[in-house]
């Protein structure tokens, strides 16, 4: 780093985008917009969701393992505070003794209670229906964890190292299933859990666009229907279950 | 008597000042930190821009990426790490880590790497100017001028739409 190479670049030249590589739009002094590629951003009109067929879902844990591997969610050997993006829930009908096992993760509600209660706006719903935590603004108050009726969110209690590049995670923030947003933004149309369910599990999960009537998930929902967990709350979750 | 004491005080102060001046005159310019070589021939912006304004680019585009899914490998923290940090770098040894090296030299402490991966992953997310391969959905640009042309044409196309 030499001392004679002082930047000969004025602030105005930077802001107005007169410098080489970046084409930028000046909105006001100090604010600049940069546009990158034409397909950038969330898919217009889409609402991503999952359909889980509990008639097919068995005892396996492939979705949980795959999710936690994909997103670098590791155990600290403290089960009470370990982060959990997806979990298997077993339910039994007391009268008949009939049991079911189903994966439960963030349900990506249309009216998410976690977003309602967040004091900083860190918990938010993307235009394509994915509910996320903006960890840049999360203060770790955990109101969202209390508000979520699905217990979908976890708090990171401990200092972490060796995170996965596409899934930043850190102490003092709340996190949950991102519906593999890094894959969706790359143009992939599947998630780690769905992929694992098809390769290692029983093929009980479908990912797709709920707003596209021709998508597999919409066709299946139209034909066979799908229930929301705690439908009485009127949150209209993007994750639907069959056979409950 | 009081006059004599104040004279001694003045002489002492003068000596101290002179000593400080000599000591400063003896100093050479501060050596910059040894920065590791980046993988790739060209940065996403001219060096003087990136040196001064990389934090503005990252800060602005982080919101675009998180809130709106507009991910730009050319201005992502992941892209920085991909070229500038060796896969064997360590957070504990700043000299092996490009970002931490300069930040610690300049006494800047930011929290990016508390959450963000501080080492490149196996799947490469190089920016468009890196000859080793661009990120997903991006083609290699021959140079920064052609990249600017591409961006301008994209913006022109986008602004035509209502």
Explained architecture:
The complex is a heterodimer of chains A (244) and B (162). The longest helix of chain A has 9 residues, at 62-70. The N and C termini of chain A lie far apart (64 Å). Chain A has seven helices and eleven strands. Mean pLDDT of chain A is 87; it is low at 1-38. Chain A has a three-stranded mixed β-sheet with strand order 10-3-11. In chain A, strands 1-2 form a two-stranded antiparallel sheet. A two-stranded antiparallel ribbon of chain A has the order 4-5. In chain A, α2 (62-70) crosses α6 (192-199). Chain A has helices at 11-15, 62-70, 113-117, 143-147, 181-186, 192-199, 216-224; strands at residues 24-28, 31-34, 48-53, 86-92, 99-105, 123-125, 131-133, 154-155, 174-175, 205-209, 239-242. Chain A is an alpha+beta fold. Chain A has one domain (48-242): 2-Layer Sandwich (Alpha-Beta Plaits), CATH 3.30.70.20. By secondary structure, chain B is mainly α. Chain B is built from six helices and no strands. Chain B has helices at 2-25, 47-68, 77-84, 98-105, 112-115, 144-160. Chain B is elongated and about 85 Å long. At the A-B interface, α5 of A face α2 and α6 of B. Chain A: GO terms for molecular function: 4 iron, 4 sulfur cluster binding; metal ion binding. Chain A: InterPro entries: 4Fe4S_Fe-S-bd, 4Fe4S_Fe_S_CS, DsrO-like, ET_IronSulfur_Cluster-Binding, TAT_signal. Chain A: Pfam families: Fer4_11. Chain A: Keywords: 4Fe-4S, Iron, Iron-sulfur, Membrane, Metal-binding, Transmembrane, Transmembrane helix. Chain A: Residues 48-79, 129-158 form the 4Fe-4S ferredoxin-type domain.
Which helices and strands occur, and which strands form pairs?
The complex is a heterodimer of chains A (244) and B (162).
Chain A: H1 11-15, E1 24-28, E2 31-34, E3 48-53, H2 62-70, E4 86-92, E5 99-105, H3 113-117, E6 123-125, E7 131-133, H4 143-147, E8 154-155, E9 174-175, H5 181-186, H6 192-199, E10 205-209, H7 216-224, E11 239-242
Chain B: H1 2-25, H2 47-68, H3 77-84, H4 98-105, H5 112-115, H6 144-160
């Amino acid at each position: 780093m030499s001392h004679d190479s002082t930047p000969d670049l004025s602030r105005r030249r930077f802001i107005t985008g007169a410098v080489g590589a970046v084409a930028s739009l000046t909105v006001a002094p100090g604010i600049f917009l940069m546009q990158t590629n034409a397909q950038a951003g969330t898919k217009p009109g889409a609402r991503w969701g999952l359909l889980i067929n509990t008639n097919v879902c068995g005892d396996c844990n492939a979705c949980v393992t795959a999710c936690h591997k994909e997103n670098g969610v590791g155990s600290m050997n403290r089960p009470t505070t370990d982060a959990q993006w997806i979990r298997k829930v077993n339910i039994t009908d007391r009268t008949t003794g009939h049991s079911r096992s189903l994966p439960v993760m963030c349900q990506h509600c249309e009216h998410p209670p976690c977003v309602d209660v967040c004091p900083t706006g860190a918990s938010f719903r993307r235009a394509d229906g994915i509910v996320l935590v903006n960890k840049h603004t999360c203060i770790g108050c955990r109101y969202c964890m209390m508000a979520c009726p699905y217990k979908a969110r976890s708090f990171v209690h401990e200092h972490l190292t060796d995170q996965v590049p596409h899934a930043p995670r850190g102490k003092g923030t709340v996190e949950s299933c991102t519906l593999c947003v890094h894959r969706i933004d790359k143009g992939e149309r599947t998630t780690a859990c769905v992929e694992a369910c098809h390769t290692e599990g029983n093929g009980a999960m479908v990912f797709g666009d709920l707003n596209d009537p021709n998508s597999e998930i919409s066709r299946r929902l139209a034909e066979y229907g799908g229930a929301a967990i705690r439908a009485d709350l009127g949150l209209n979750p993007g994750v639907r279950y069959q056979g409950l | 008597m009081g006059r004599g004491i104040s004279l001694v005080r003045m002489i002492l102060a003068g000596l101290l000042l002179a000593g400080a001046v000599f000591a400063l005159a003896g100093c050479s310019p501060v050596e910059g930190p040894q920065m590791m070589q980046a993988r790739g021939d060209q940065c996403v912006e001219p060096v003087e821009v990136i040196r001064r304004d990389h934090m503005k680019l990252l800060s602005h585009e982080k919101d675009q990426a998180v809130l709106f899914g507009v991910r730009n490998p050319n201005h992502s923290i992941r892209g920085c790490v991909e070229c500038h940090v060796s896969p064997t770098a360590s957070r504990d040894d700043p000299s092996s880590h490009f970002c931490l090296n300069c930040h610690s030299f300049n006494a800047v402490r930011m929290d990016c790497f508390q959450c963000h991966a501080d080492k490149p992953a196996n799947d490469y997310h190089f920016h468009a100017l890196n000859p080793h391969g661009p990120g997903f959905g991006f083609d290699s640009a021959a140079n920064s001028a052609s990249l600017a042309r591409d961006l301008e044409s994209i913006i022109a196309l986008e602004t035509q739409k209502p």
